[in-house]
Amino acid sequence: MAAWDLSVTVEDLGLDAPPVTISVASDLHIGGVILKLVEKTQIKQDWSDHALWWEQKQRWLLRTAWTLEKYGIHADAKLVFMPQHKPLRLGLPNGITLRLRVCFSNPVFQTVMGICRMLNIRHPEELSLLRPIEEKKKKKDKNLAPEIYDLTEVPLSSGTLSRPCLYNGMPAHFADSPEMEAIYKMLSVSQPPPAPEVIAKQYRPASVVDKAHINGRYVWLDSSRCLLQQGIQESDKLWLRFKYYATYDMDSKYDAVRLTQLYEQARWAILLEDIDCTEEEMMLFGALQYHISKVAQSEPQIMSNNPAMDDLDSALQSLEVKMEGEGSSASDLLENMTAPELTDYLKIFRPKRLTLKGYKQYWFKFQDTSISYFKSKEESIGEPIQMINLKGCEVAPDVNVAAQKFLIRLLIPAPEGMNEVYLRCENEQQYAQWMAGCRLGSKGKTLADSSFQSEIQSIRSFLAMQKTNSSSSSANASEESINTHSLVSPRYHKKYKPKQLTPRILDAYQNVAQLSLTDALMRFLQIWQALPDFGLAYVVVRFKGSRKDEVLGIAPNRLIRIDLSVGDVVKTWRYNNMKQWNVNWDIRQMAIEFEGNVNIAFSCVTADCKIVHEFIGGYIFMSTRSREKSETLNEELFHKLTGGHEAL
Amino acid sequence: MADLMADLNATEEKLATEIECLKAPSASQPDFPPPRSSNVSTPVPSAASSLAPPPPSGAKPTTEEIEAQMKADKIKLALEKLKEAKVKKLVVKVLMNDGSSKTLMVDERQNVREVLDNMFEKSHCDCNVNWSICETNPELQLERAFEDHENLVDPLSAWTRDSENKVLFQERPEKYEVFKNPQNFYLWKKDKTTLRDMKDKDKELLIQENFCGTSIIVPDLEGVLHLREDGKKSWKQRLFQLRASGIYYVPKGKTKSSRDLVCFVQFDNVNVYYGKDFKSKYKAPTDFCFVLKHPQIQKESQYIKYLCCDDIWTMNLWVTGIRIAKYGASLYENFKTAEIKASNSVWTNRSTPSSSNQSTPSPTVKGSMTSPPPPPPLAEVLPPPPPDPVLPPPPPPMAAKTASKPTPPKRNQPNNFPPPPLDMDNLPPPPPPPPTDDHLEAPPDFLPPPPPATGFNSLPPPPPSFGGVDHSLPPPPPDPVSLPPPPPDPVFVASGAPPPPPPPPPPPPAAPVATLRPAVRTSGSLKKVPPAPPKRTAPTQGGGGGGDFMSELMLAMRKKHADQ
């Protein structure tokens, strides 16, 4: 067979180097071409990761046994010889940018699997890569460019492990050096709340249409094609995000990074109003964020251990100590377990309709779950003037540190209704103790409860927060005092001052203050997932036969049709009623058939119909996982469901 | 794990409070009548000793260790005793559907599920999942079924002393309707035929989606409801929305977007109640009303929120939605437990050879139950009925209800309350109990065999052979044991015809009307209460452990079935 010249650009020779020309025959297989190339360059290095890229056809020549003829390559082909793995800048949900080596030759689905394996994120099928919009204002604050954490040295491993073996609670490659450990901590521990200005600066969608346009602005990459085919170059920046909101099999023992990153993504979705919530929900999200950042910073990370187990162990241990204590008699034992005493002079006020009496001072005593008060300390042995049982009551703070106002508002249930009572404390210390007592009492707990001291602490730290907010600016506030504006979306920055926000968040905080870090993260995710609009991705579409644009919402279990003029959900279709769906790639139209002869068809306005197709197929794939129960990912099925005709 | 922790905490707390009583023994606990404490504390030693920690592992214990161990045991025993003595108990009168009633002791550690199980044992009902313990408040015209995981003593303690409130044992199909037909709640916007023709696998999927994920999904409810204005007599319409975090409404002139919603109520401190006959009481637009209030509020108050729906369907949608939002996963757990109970009882009953199916009473066993046809409603603890094959099986309460002429299951009428228990008086007295002293400790949950449905006049009470049939059961003592056999009541001699309900407790010594009113007494008012039935000493099991084995077998079968 006749020999002809094939010129190949070898990336390792430098960008300006002329292509290397080798003499080949059409029946030469790709492996042979590579061999010739390597011999010609005379560079001694590991070429095992290198492969040929055919530029005009935008494809990799990965089958080394195929001949040039089979690939259809002639002398005019422009080939590039380069490594399949290249560094990439990767933005994570928590805002950190990593630099790591990823695969440019496999479908994005596999690239994401590789990334997730490296970062110790299980269930990579739930994530994907986004191409961020061009940031134009970047020139202005170039010196503020975020720090990039380098992971390019991490050796690439293969194989999927659903339960990766952990060393010291982290994958072995993170346990190598302190620097790597620090990066792992960055991945697995939630970030402190962002400054309010940072939130305010980010783009926030104002309407469903805006949200639909996000899918045009930030483009999800095609899972069935490789990075290079989608125009991603070495060192480009991509975002790694959870794409399918169908979190499956979350296990805090193995999922430290996954849980944290999902939380961060949820937190930003709330702060930037990607998903709508009510004011009450926002306050609860704020309280949880505050709690999570506080606990994350204080709690030493024992990632491999189960916290509940620890609690039980220590409880049993202390019980044992108490039981076996040297010379402990039963009465000693009882003595030790007595609740801390809480007595003091406080002022009380009971607002009634026709009286205008002010606060009166009495001697107060906290007992079990009740507060009793007496005329004076001396008379406290006798019958109290009144005893208030706090069980089931509502406790609300009414505090202004600057004005030295420390009120506890109690709504005490009685057969006739709720009785309103105010307790006035003199100072912070007194307030924190009594407030903590009232909160425990309202939950039916006594002061002997182990949470009493931590409750006092959390109240005091919240008071401290109010103090710093009112005095100094928040810019250089220490970690102890978080600006409450960092915890809510900018809408509430306008509506409330930080010191107005503090009591509201504090109010929500009392219900979550005792949660462990994992529980708090899970609670945040649960409330997020319970929001009505959770998991919806929006696309502007034009339904067949309709003359106006409408919005299609794609949820984990259904499609919804939203009328733009009213903003109402007009129609819902569930995936489990879906019989089949087709894409007409020529006219870019999707047609879906549901049970009961329901047919819909639409073309996509703000996103490519491949993206919509992949979303729907992806969610259907996600729903098959629980049934299969197998540990390995059925990649073929994923591509079958999401790939369209181009795949396979 | 959390439970254990709570337990430990509770022990510590109890101790802490207990010591105060020790310090000041000046009769600070007047509500401990001697009989009760003696009853209560008797079972403790055995329970405590069985709980004692095992000796330190490893080599033979030295004498010191043994001593230390004994000391520890003693301390633990003391702790247990203290704990037990502190446990609050209520004597609760539970009204049955047919108007009769059962009296039972509920302690504060028991949840409604356990009380329901007790009632199943006492009532020979069919144990289906719809059975509920409910409370009614005649003054506010409210009623609510307790959730199975709820503690019963707590809400009952909130009743006022002169309360007319009642505890009922009845079937409430709406209790777990959401798990039988989830589409009616989660896809309520769809048209009726789609909902009716929903396939079982789709129903299952809906339950999976909404109850088995990381978070519980609340039905997406939105609609116009009538709200009773505070203090005013008028009702005004508002657009309400249910969310996991509470009920919200859309203020006038605002959009429905989440950020504009105003919070109407959150669920932490309120329960949801059905309102009865509000059209006449409050001039409500319809009678389909529900109410949100703090459980402790018992009288008219501005803190009660009254809502009115256009139809019963909407009302059930909202009440169920609120329950899902408030109780979340517990609701589904409760349902699963209830289903197991129901199918277990089906199984045990089927396997009893002497029972027959002719009196199947339960129209409420829904298609969702996979088990075979509803069985005669025998509780597993019952001794087999008299071995005479000609006899019809004992009538279930349901049968009694349908057959008996004059006893409509009215609940709120303490005065003309039909006293079918007294029918029993026509019967010859129950088999002579052994010396009552011995039986003071006998568990009150064992029932005398149910009287046959018809022709009971001619029959002697449980035939003597009965004792021989089932060795493990003591001869059924009268219930409660401590009471003397009830005196015959002349008024009811004539009414021999209505089939008697399951053996009821003999009326307490006081006049029936008087005992009905304070159906529940807190421990503080125990002085007035008839002697409490003795405490259960052991969980009652089926005769000779057969029930246990059967239920295990049943579980295994179910599992196998599920695997296929």
Structure description:
- The complex is a heterodimer of chains A (648) and B (564).
- Chain A is an alpha+beta fold and 648 residues long.
- Chain A has 17 helices and 27 strands.
- Chain A is elongated.
- Chain B has 564 residues and is of the alpha+beta class.
- Chain B contains 18 helices and 13 strands.
- In chain B, α3 packs across α4.
- The longest helix of chain B is centred in the N-terminal third of the chain and has 24 residues.
- About 42% of the residues of chain B have low confidence.
- Chains A and B meet through α8, α9, α10 and α15 of A and α1, α4 and α10 of B.
- Chain B: Belongs to the MRL family.
- Chain B: Pfam families: PH, RA_2.
- Chain B: It is a peripheral membrane protein.
Write the layout of secondary structure elements.
The complex is a heterodimer of chains A (648) and B (564).
Chain A: E1 3-10, E2 20-25, H1 30-41, E3 50-54, E4 59-61, H2 68-71, E5 79-83, E6 85-91, E7 97-103, H3 108-119, E8 127-131, E9 148-150, E10 166-167, E11 170-171, H4 178-188, H5 196-201, H6 208-217, E12 219-220, E13 237-242, H7 256-271, H8 279-298, H9 307-324, H10 330-336, E14 342-349, E15 360-367, E16 370-374, E17 386-389, E18 394-400, E19 405-414, E20 417-425, H11 428-442, H12 452-471, H13 490-495, H14 498-509, H15 517-529, E21 537-543, E22 550-554, E23 558-562, E24 569-574, E25 578-584, E26 589-594, E27 598-604, H16 609-628, H17 635-642
Chain B: H1 2-23, H2 34-41, H3 44-51, H4 63-86, E1 89-95, E2 101-107, H5 112-123, E3 131-137, E4 142-145, H6 153-157, E5 166-171, H7 177-180, H8 183-186, H9 192-196, H10 200-211, E6 222-228, E7 235-243, E8 246-249, E9 262-265, E10 271-275, H11 278-282, E11 289-293, E12 305-308, H12 312-327, H13 329-351, H14 397-403, H15 436-439, H16 465-469, H17 512-516, E13 520-521, H18 546-563
Helix pairs in contact in B: 1-4, 3-4, 13-18
